[in-house]
Amino acid sequence: MVVLAAAVALAGGALSPALAVHLTPATLVSPVRAGAVLVASGYVVAQRKAAVASKGTGRLVYLGVVEGDRVRAGQVIARIEDAD
């Protein structure tokens, strides 16, 4: 039994396909200075603006946003005093 196991193990190695070895040539690498530094000035401009207005007048009792905040459609951004 031991002889059979040894024979199978040795034969299994002989029946395996040989692994291919690919050689890659070496290349010398050295540090270099490349590129340039860009220094610029400017300002940011909004892509879209929206005017907000009320049909009625009254005292503002709630303001839920500040200039520059992103808002969603339907979001309450302000409330005017109910003068009933």
- Ranges with pLDDT <50 over ≥5 residues? none
Output the radius of gyration: 38 Å
SS content category:
alpha+beta
Query: How many DSSP helices?
Result: 1
Helix content: 10-25%
Strand order of the largest sheet: 1-2
SSE order in H/E notation?
HEE
Distance between the termini: 102 Å
Q: Please report the total strand number as a whole number.
A: 2
Shape: elongated
Rounded mean pLDDT is 82
Strand content: 5-15%
Largest sheet: 2 strands, antiparallel
Name its key features.
84 residues; alpha+beta; 1 helix; 2 strands; elongated
Short description:
This protein is of the alpha+beta class and 84 residues long.
Account of the protein in words:
The protein is an alpha+beta fold. Helices cover 17% and strands 8% of the residues. It has one helix at 2-15, and strands spanning 60-63, 78-80. The protein has a two-stranded antiparallel sheet with strand order 1-2. The longest helix is centred in the first third of the chain and has 14 residues, at 2-15. The chain is elongated and about 105 Å long.
Write the layout of secondary structure elements.
Blueprint: H1 2-15, E1 60-63, E2 78-80
